Amino acid sequence: MTLTVLIIGCGDIGITLGRELLSEGHRVIGVRRHVDALQDTGIEPLALDLNALEDAGASALPEADYVIYTVSADHFEESAYQSAYPEGLKRVLSVMEQHATPPRRVFFVSSTSVYGQQEGEVVNEESPTEPTSFSGTLMCEAEQALINHPLPGTVVRFSGIYGPGRDRLIHQVVEGRIAPVTPVIYSNRIHRNDCTGILAHLIHAQENGQSLANLYLGSDCEPVTMHNVMAWIAKQLNVESTETMQSPLRRRTSKRCDNRRILEAGYQFRYPSYREGYAQVMKEGGFGQAQKA
């Protein structure tokens, strides 16, 4: 069956997911303010500012079988996060619920920033959320807006996303920088292609009659310290670390994400740990060749 999937905030994750769904024969509509990035992707572009949805009718957005809300805030400011997450999501839900055929499910791409744990605690979908930042607090508000809404909804909390073009950590290693051994800062990561893989998997699961939870934690299978990740990358690239990074790592939360629920839902990670994932990013980005040149 051909599905129609509406991706709100169709950026890197949305475009990658859209291409995957298109390859399966589905119809994909991408919503963003500026749609130039969707050219030649096969994704149908819809130029729209979510602020224009205030008091909008059902015709403001097309009907779809599934809606993926993966909006990014314009700036790291409270007002930008307020607009992008709780307010933007509520506006989309208000429009979609007016459709004669509402979506089968709405997915909200959230973040593990909703957790405030700092001592390396293991966290899962049942763990308390006590964010220490406005970004995490507003993400929590958006999550509850979806979970409490009459439309079927699922929140997916992704940890630190990396992948092609998301290679800042590799560049820091190349510059000779490394995270300290202490204080111990745990890093939870997920390759961009596993973000899209999880979302596609959950759509397929529902289509196959599987009952979905209202919340999944999307993180790879190996929580690890930031120091160990950077030391491993340095070893692969034969780079000597000359500078220890002290800040802003001290201000970060430190937890270990348990991904058991998404595994039990049948998802198999394409990149189960940072090793497979960063090896792919370094190969695609030509980092190994750059070091040998």
TrEMBL record:
Molecular function via GO: aldehyde dehydrogenase (NAD+) activity
A GO CC annotation recorded here is:
cytoplasm
Q: Which residues form a coiled coil?
A: none
**Residue stretches making up the NAD-dependent epimerase/dehydratase domain:** 5-171
Known Pfam families for this protein? Epimerase
**Name assigned to this protein:** Nucleoside-diphosphate-sugar epimerase
